[in-house]
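I'd like us to work through together how a protein chain folds, taking it slowly. We need material for that, and I hope you will provide a protein of your own picking. Go ahead whenever you are ready, and we will take it from there:
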Amino acid sequence: MKHPPDTDILGEFLISARSLAEYRAIFTLADSDLRARRILDCPGGAASFAAEASALGAHVTAADPIYTHPPAQLRTLALTETDRGSDWAGAHHDRYRWDWYGDPQQHHRMRRTAATLFGADLLAHPQRYVAASLPSLPFADNSFDLTLSSHLLFTYADRLDADFHLMALLELSRVSTGETRLYPLVDHLGRPQDDLIAHLRKELHDKGIRTSFRETGYEFHRGATSMLILHGPADG
């Protein structure tokens, strides 16, 4: 007997294509966060952030294991994954707030535009895209002034355990001389990860890493209105 598919299972890790406008809202990025600063986007996915922020004077490195794919294959994958993500969000429409985007169609258009820009930048500036995966990154200590990480940690808490989260956070902190900003603090079903976060904050505190919360200007998953900040030596 065949069982119907579980529509609450996202399946493979989703490769998302977010725009600079989304990053600004998610991470409360001001112009001063971008100009002439070394920024790590990890995981970078198929976001257009590296392309758009670099055009404003930032020095962006995107890190993601998907960058092992040939550029032509990755450009196609970025678009098909964008469609998969939009289909998922549409099928779970009530779990999301659509006011930031306007409606699901505009959300899809924005993501397709970002995926297309990512594909063009990947060809024009391949040095910005480093094939690497948490919890081990090929960067020296304090390589970046600001690190941004979204929609991996906490999002996939159903398959990445607490030890992985801790190792990943320690690694992101190691390569960052300034803040590491993490969003969202819910999983892909919108469930808060309060117990996991409390555990991780204690472990980080015991290792000398200060953490805090900050409200964001973005809410897509209902209730996902804050990010976790890891403070580096430069801002501590």
